[in-house]
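Repro:
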Amino acid sequence: MTKVSLEALVAGARAGKLVSFPTDTVPALAALPEKADLIFEAKQRSEDKPLILMAASGSDLWPYVQGSDREYKIWQEITDKYWPGGLTLVLPASGLVPKVMNPNDPTTIGIRVPASAIAQNILSQTGPLATTSANISGQPALQTMAEIENQFPGILTLSVAESQLEVSAGGVPSTVAKWTGMNWQILRQGAIKLNF
């Protein structure tokens, strides 16, 4: 792992490299959406476990999903209430989503806006990134830079001075809710408790 400045991490992500940074839930592994295969390879992750598209704002994510005006209104009500924050919504994917983000079901995409100043700073400069927790698939999410450094020696992460600006919040993953076309299905109960 190479510890770099925020500027160098952003430049690396834009250049298609695998990066890691803190979020409001657990530290993220991230890459450009079209380079999502780097994440699957690094994590030894099965292709039936899709990645999340994370961005600095909801407006950056809406082009990646498609639905009716009524659905957009429902989705917007949820995001107005819980974003930025630990809620991932799984919605119908638009044609902008690279198939490599969700190889087994390219018709859906998980989207999230983190409540993290560092993550938002990075994402506002890179645009939406394919993300997931920083860990080998099936193992607990890594919480510290040292753990991430040991498990993923080749990726870019923030220097200690930069990463200490913010600590990940408690290590609880995001709540994942999938839109069924009629209502919400909770796929994973996490940081946000939802009552529909």
